[in-house]
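Supplementary Methods S3. Complex input for the zinc ion-bound model.
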Amino acid sequence: MELVEYVKRQAQGYCDLCEQPAPFANKDQQPYLECHHVIWLSQNGADSLDNIVALCPNCHRKMHIVQDENDIKKLTAIARNRQHLLNTNF
Ligand SMILES: [Zn+2]
Ligand SMILES: [Zn+2]
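Predicted complex, serialized as structure tokens:
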């Protein structure tokens, strides 16, 4: 499974930042969330589980415009926690 799909599945239809349900479902009736790299790939962020979160379109846009330090801290913690869970489960 691709990392982005894994992250979205783990998010269970909820945005990692605002914790609200995805605003709509896609054609496959899956909650629509977007994957975001907490540290952008263009800033040498890693394309790995501990750097990817699932966001609603609003929060995704916000992360790219505002880059609020507290948001980044929160998302980093969530991503690292998922990485940790994956390591413990396998
Ligand atoms: Zn959100
Ligand atoms: Zn993004």
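The chain has one domain: 3-81. The pocket of zinc ion (ligand 2) is lined by residues 36-37, 60, 64 (CB under 6 Å).
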